[in-house]
């Protein structure tokens, strides 16, 4: 099947720092893929490079021609000098009619917010407005950078439910960065663990049923977080005492998330 | 200015409306504010105030070049303003401290322009007209250039309004939507150079940025949307032109600075009418 976006041997540098190296990644139509990883692991950099906001130092990124991307950035600063209501913002870059705008706002859980200035929204409201705008652009792929930050628990659950709905209705692919690992497990087709490179990737359902996963971490959400912390709160340079060999950074890690689709070698 | 104002007390025979220097001045100023309203709004939204200054100051060098090479004045100012604007646009985003770079370029261009002008016989005397403008000396040909230039700027901005606004809200959102924020920057750079070239005769190189920023800042206080702010800025600009010309006539003050002073007064009033958000 054709990929919407494909990265081959992608590396990204920020100055002298290598933020991402040797990443092979592809996302297909209708797929929900979540990128997880510790702070500074290059999650945002990866999705920004896939969109084309960051230049590849090596390798390349290919987007299918005419691909419509609905991007929800992690943060968006609106200059105080620019008066902009929610309604006007939804009409960028293409104008939409009032009915469509209100429908999108209702759908993302913030009906009737149209007349509010963008600068006066709470974090959670702003996030929903960003998503509403992205949906209005009729995207082939939604790209969301930590979309649930600023949302409470029910808001987060509703959000992932909405993502699934959108995918089912429009067939759009979804690529997101997330910290809500317990929800990720339920809502994603594929999980990519990133730490400067792709540590492992695979289908979460296969993974969560794996005996290693049950044995090591139990079944609750606490288990998922424990897994997450174990997998990622480490440093490949400074070993934190669980037997890291720098030449074989994965040797100390079991790979319960290593799914059947994962083709790269683990040392 | 004084010389011309003395003339005004002894009106000559008029054949058409355009023969009246005061009408021409008002038309020139209002024509310019059609462009400075929306463009000035972008300057405020994108925090390009110093960028406007650098471009405007460079125009003095353009004046010197135009006289030195025997080119038409507008061609000289437009060329140098455009060169400066493109230089600044190219330098931005390359890791330079922008306010320092702009500070160097803006004042270097102004100083160079003044030095170059001193080599041109006959220009030194008239230089103040280009520093502070000489709106009362606007000719019919000037009017045509001003309205032509301002019309071009307005057309350019209106044509690409949605794209320019998207890139101004956030360049990354624009890029993710398949637009090129570099093109938006180029359009605004071009519009700025054009505006500077036609404005130099009206308010002069030192005050062009003021005419861009002050009306837009005043309009911001009540505006709920970008379009109302742009229109409001044009309105404030036009009122400033009318008020400044009236004050200039009444108190025998230089016209360009009087226009900017009225704009500043309107800005102060707008602060009292501020709407939150």
Summarize the structure.
Chain B: InterPro entries: ABC_BtuC-like, ABC_TroCD. The complex is a heterodimer of chains A (267) and B (277). Chain A is α/β, with parallel strands linked by helices and 267 residues long.
Characterize the overall form of chain A.
globular
Structural class of chain A: alpha/beta
Low-confidence stretches of chain A: 212-267
Task: List the secondary-structure elements of chain B in sequence, H or E.
Answer: HHHHHHHHHHHHH
* Proportion in helices of chain B: over 70%
User: How many alpha or pi helices of chain B?
Assistant: 13
Percent of sequence in beta strands of chain B: under 5%
Average pLDDT over all residues of chain B: 86
What name goes with the CATH superfamily of the domain at 24-204 in chain B? ABC transporter involved in vitamin B12 uptake, BtuC
Number of strands of chain B: 0
* Parts with pLDDT < 50 across at least 5 consecutive residues of chain B: 1-14
Major sheet characteristics of chain A? 6 strands, mixed
| Greatest interface | A-B, 31 and 28 residues
Tell the overall outline of chain B.
globular
Structure description:
The complex is a heterodimer of chains A (267) and B (277). Chain A is α/β, with parallel strands linked by helices and 267 residues long. Chain A has 9 helices and 9 strands. In chain A, the strands form 2 sheets. Chain A has a 6-stranded mixed β-sheet with strand order 5-6-7-3-8-9, with helices on both faces. Chain A has a 3-stranded antiparallel β-sheet with strand order 2-1-4, covered by helices on one side. In chain A, helix 3 crosses helix 4. Chain B is an all-alpha fold. The longest helix of chain B is centred in the last third of the chain and has 26 residues. At the A-B interface, strand 5 of A face helix 8, helix 9 and helix 12 of B.
